[in-house]
Specification:
Blueprint lengths: L3 E4 L6 H31 L6 H27 L5 E4 H34 L4 H4 L2 H26 L9 E2 L6 H5 L7 H34 L3 H29 L6 H25 L2 H20 L1
Parallel strand pairs: 1-3
Antiparallel strand pairs: 1-2
Length: 305
């Protein structure tokens, strides 16, 4: 029985691995700093204590957790000749990836619902998106992520692994690990597509339809009233495409391409969690103003001390 898996990584070239180490180390540092900054800013600034920013802080926390499942080990493995992970560690990666990924999926849907209520039903916004509802949505996001990850782990935990143990990637994910099982996995592949793939595609289509309705509503309003809403929606739609695009190809595309899958895996686990805080801070005036206030407050505290 297999007790460990070996990652083939992104490259066998020593020079390229040094470059990749620096590149991904800088990216991961940016992920940690950017997402923690958003969480801290939303938590400390009373002007941002609203449903939209509460959900944004939860999204940043999920982005940070999602990237931390794979990025630290990938960075350390650039200096390892044998990129090894234990069988239990591999299952833990699968569980956590789908846990945080499922939670982020629900959070993005909740953010679209929040914008729909704010723009299409503004008079009912405070009633519908009250504090208890926001806490319930976030709790549901983490709960759905947990149920989704348990269902994914159930596919792999009892599979017999007795032969090859090389994973052609830099982390464990269900589609790649299933291929190494010593049994016919055709039905399991279909179940993974039916579970993760259909869920991802349906969520993506639902979000695109929601934002289309919101955009049509905005176009009917005067330009001065719709400019801020349009700027916020542009940021939201960009994040949705960046998150769901790789997921659709990884879990729902029936004809995977190995090299392209690696690129999508890097984009999904490292690039997107860094782009999210950049998109939301650059496209959002309230966030930029709040960050300036936070910086001034820190400077004043240092001067007083």
């Amino acid at each position: 029985m297999v007790t460990e898996f070996i990652f083939l990584g992104l490259s066998n070239s020593q020079e390229l691995q040094i470059f990749l180490f620096v590149f991904f180390f800088v990216f991961y540092a940016g992920i940690v700093f950017g997402n923690l900054l958003i969480v801290l800013t939303v938590a400390s600034d009373s002007h941002l204590h609203s449903p939209m920013y509460f959900l944004l802080a939860n999204l940043s926390l999920l982005d940070l957790c999602l990237s931390s499942v794979t990025a630290p080990k990938m960075i350390l493995d650039f200096f390892s000749k044998r990129k090894v992970i234990s069988f239990k560690g591999c299952l833990a990666q699968i569980f956590l990836l789908h846990f945080f990924g499922g939670g982020e999926m629900v959070t993005l849907i909740a953010m679209a619902f929040d914008r729909y209520i704010a723009i299409c039903k503004p008079l009912h916004y405070t009633t519908i998106m009250c504090g208890n509802v926001c806490v319930g949505i976030v709790t549901a996001a983490w709960g759905v992520g947990f149920l989704h990850s348990v269902s994914q782990l159930a596919f792999a935990v009892n599979l017999p692994f007795c032969g090859p143990n090389e994973v052609d990637s830099f982390y464990c994910d269900l589609p790649r690990v299933i291929k190494l099982a010593c049994t016919d996995t055709h039905q399991l592949d279909i179940m993974v597509i039916a579970n993760s793939g259909v869920l991802t595609v349906c969520s993506f289509v639902l979000l695109i339809m929601s934002y289309t309705i919101i955009l049509v509503t905005i176009q009917r309003r005067p330009a001065d009233r719709s400019s801020k809403a349009l700027s916020t929606l542009t940021a939201h739609i960009t994040v949705v495409v960046l998150f769901f695009g790789p997921c659709v190809f990884i879990y729902a595309w029936p004809f995977p391409i190995e090299s392209f899958d690696k690129f999508l895996a890097v984009f999904y686990s490292v690039v997107t969690p860094l782009l999210n805080p950049i998109i939301y801070t650059l496209r959002n005036k309230d966030m930029k103003v709040a960050m300036r206030r936070l910086r001034k407050c820190n400077m004043n505290c240092r001067l007083k001390s």
